[in-house]
Write a structure and sequence with these properties.
By secondary structure, the protein is an all-alpha fold. 75% of the residues lie in helices and 0% in strands. The protein has a domain at 92-278: MetI-like fold (Orthogonal Bundle), CATH 1.10.3720. It has 14 helices and no strands. It is globular and about 85 Å long. It starts with a helix and ends with a helix.
């Protein structure tokens, strides 16, 4: 397993390098730059703007800028923010805990809701109830996250007043933070929960037709024992892989959800950096997201390798 993990990590290096090149070009491709934000100021002259670009190294050719940035990333110097002069790592680490908190909470909610829904629709639900649940899960997959977030804010925060409309709550008050976390976590969990529920439903339908399930039923075991101890345990094994592969969707969903709910995480930081043309922070945040995505894929591969040794040894049947 150690050799398997090392191989996967080595293959991630050229992937990260390619991602960094594409991101660097896309971020610098639009016309203008950080100095253009001050172009409308009456106190900023053309000489001042040119001096700012020179000090930031933006007058160098794009390949030269990329090599300088890459050298800094490898050595641990991610640059400084154009906005306030703070190190990029400091700006990102301040926002990262909020994003991780939102992602983990939504993942726990999604799994906790998806398991009973998937098992129920596959084993005990009548046709009408199964149809309603399937429509609900399909809507959860199809409806955009930002629209769901806006509806939640309008109904549950605006009209009913059950949850706050945004923010993270007071840092010294755990209940306040949990209260502010309910809305964005539920919205972000909806998409994952819908996918998990449909996957568990399909797996359970297939497993319930296996011979060992029929044998357990014929022995007179209780329905609950047959469903959860025999069928669900086997149907849920690949769920480990699905959870690992769900990380990229959680990250992208968290970026949108944070903006809608004013959650002070990486999504808000990226939005603010885009508006300010804060290139170092954008590159640092996007590369961290790419690394987290690759890590999620690695977790999925390792989890599946633990279940199927042929995956980690490279054997074929």
């Amino acid at each position: 397993m150690a050799a398997f993990i090392v191989r996967r990590l080595l293959t991630a290096i050229p992937l990260l390098l390619g991602i960094s090149m594409v991101l660097f070009v896309l971020i610098h491709l639009p016309p203008g730059g950080p100095a253009d934000i001050y172009a409308g100021s009456p106190t900023a002259s053309a000489a001042d703007l040119a001096r700012m670009n020179e000090n930031l190294g933006l007058n160098d050719p794009l390949p030269v800028q990329y090599v300088k940035w890459l050298r800094g990333m490898v050595t641990g110097d991610w640059g400084v923010s154009y906005k306030d002069g703070r190190p990029v790592t400091t700006a990102i680490l301040e926002r990262l805990p909020a994003t991780i908190q939102l992602m983990l909470t939504s993942l726990l909610i999604a799994v906790a809701l998806a398991i009973p829904i998937g098992v129920f629709t596959a084993t005990r639900a009548q046709r009408g109830a199964r149809y309603v649940v399937n429509v609900f899960t399909m809507l959860g997959i199809s409806v955009p996250t930002f629209w769901t977030g806006l509806m939640v804010i309008m109904i549950f925060a605006g009209r009913l007043g059950w949850i706050p409309a945004g923010g993270r709550g007071r840092p010294d008050d755990l209940l306040s933070q949990l209260h502010h976390l309910i809305g964005p976590a539920l919205v972000l969990a909806l998409v994952s929960m819908a996918g998990f529920a449909r996957y568990i439903h399909s797996s359970m339908v297939e497993v319930m037709q296996e011979d060992y399930v029929r044998t357990a039923t014929a022995k007179g075991l209780a329905r609950r024992t047959v469903v959860f101890r025999h069928a669900f345990r086997n149907a849920s094994i690949p769920l480990i892989t699905l959870i690992g592969l769900e990380l990229p969707r959680l990250i992208s969903g968290a970026l949108v959800t944070e903006v809608v709910f004013s959650w002070p995480g990486l999504g808000r930081l990226i939005t603010e950096s885009i508006l300010a043309r804060n290139y170092p922070v954008l590159m640092g945040a996007f590369m961290l997201i790419a690394l987290m995505t690759i890590l999620g894929s690695l977790i999925a591969d390792v989890g599946y390798g633990l279940v199927n040794p042929q995956i980690r040894t490279g054997e074929r049947r």
